[in-house]
Amino acid sequence: MKVLVIGANGQIGKHLVSFIQENDKLEARAMIRDEKQAPYFKELGAEIAVVDLEDEIEAIAKAADGVDAIVFTAGSGPNTGKDKTLMIDLDAAVKTMEAAKEAKVKRYIMISSFDTTREAIQSAPESFAPYVVAKHYADEWLKSTNLDYTIIHPGLLTNDSGKNKVELATTVARGEVPREDIARVIVESLINDSTIGKEFQVVGGSTPVEEAVKSV
C-alpha cells in the first residue's frame, strides 16, 4: 500500500514516514512544502511530492496520483493566527479530501483534535476555539464523503519517546500521548480495515498499539 503523508515534515509526519518505510506492507510518499525538507525523506527511501497546502486541489491530486491511501497530519501550529487556522486546518483539509476523490483514492485518515464536538467548541478558550471549529467542520466534511475514512483524536501531544502502548476508544479521559505513538496508531489503522468508518480518541495507556487498534 502506497501512502501519501500530508504534513510529512511535521513531528507526527516524520515519525509516520519512518514507520511506514520500516513496514513491508507499506511505502510512503512524503508531501512537503519545500524541496529543502526533502533530504530527511530521501534518506528513508520515501518518494517526495513538493506541494503547498494552499495550492489548488489539482496540485494535491497530482501528488496523490497512484497512491492507495492519504493521511492528513498537517496543522497550522499553535503560533499562527485565525487566518492560517482556517486555511490549513479547514480549507486545506477539505481540499485534500476533494483531491482524494479526483485521484480516485478511497482510503483517508485524518489526525484531528482530541474533542471536536459542539460542546468542545462552546467550552474552548477564546484563543483555541477557532482551531476546534476548523477541526469540527473538517471532520464533519470527511464523514459526509464516500471516502473510507478513519478519524484519530489524539490527546495532548508530547515529544516523549513512544511506549507503543495506548488507551484507545470512542471516548477516553483526557491525557497525554507521545507523537511517536500516534504515528504507530496511524500505521496500524492503515493495515486494519476494521478502522474504516470509525473515529476514536487516543491517550497514553497500557494496551499495545496493535492490540488497541484491532479492538476498534
UniProtKB/TrEMBL annotation:
CDD domains: SDR_a5 (cd05243). The lineage of its organism: Bacteria, Bacillati, Bacillota, Bacilli, Bacillales. This is NAD(P)-dependent oxidoreductase. Pfam families: NAD_binding_10. Residues 7-191 form the NAD(P)-binding domain.
